TrEMBL record:
GO CC terms: endomembrane system; mitochondrial inner membrane peptidase complex
Organism name: freshwater metagenome
Pfam families from the UniProt entry: Peptidase_S24 (PF00717)
InterPro entries recorded: LexA/Signal_pep-like_sf, Mito_IMP1_subunit, Pept_S26A_signal_pept_1_Ser-AS, Pept_S26A_Sod_Ni_maturase, Peptidase_S24_S26A/B/C, Peptidase_S26
Keywords: Hydrolase, Membrane, Mitochondrion, Mitochondrion inner membrane, Protease
Chief site of localization: membrane
GO terms assigned for molecular function: serine-type endopeptidase activity
Lineage: unclassified sequences, metagenomes, ecological metagenomes
Keyword Disulfide bond applies: no
GO BP term, pick one: protein processing involved in protein targeting to mitochondrion
Domain Peptidase S24/S26A/S26B/S26C positions: 11-97
Name by which UniProt lists this protein: Unannotated protein
């Protein structure tokens, strides 16, 4: 996912990979609210702790210590907390609030 990171605001990102099928498909556009409050079950954009240049789109599954456990909706195709563990709370940098459905955004 290529983008400029902003601390607050909104932008559209392009999803890469199969990890969030059926919620988000490869090359689908998603509307992200940067800096939004997040909670269990939300789809988020996060930095991977061991590779901070890499941004992930995953679901918040549970709180884990001082951070979050992230998983893809397609477990067989997801590189997520099952592989690299929980991420710190401040590694979660945005909330995916909608996906582009051809001619309009549809809330997740």
């Amino acid at each position: 996912m290529a983008m400029k990171i902003r601390q607050r605001g909104w932008s559209v990102v392009r999803v890469e990979g199969l990890s969030m099928i059926p919620t988000l498909a490869p090359d689908e556009r998603a509307l992200v609210h940067w800096g939004a409050e997040v909670g269990l079950g939300d789809v988020v954009v996060a930095r991977r702790m061991d590779r901070p240049e890499l941004l992930l789109v995953k679901r918040l599954v549970r709180s884990e210590g001082d951070g979050w456990w992230l998983e893809g909706d397609n477990p067989g195709a997801s590189d997520d907390s099952r592989a690299f563990g929980a991420v710190e709370t401040d590694a979660v940098i945005g909330k995916v609030v909608a996906r582009w459905a051809g001619w309009k955004f549809v809330r997740l």
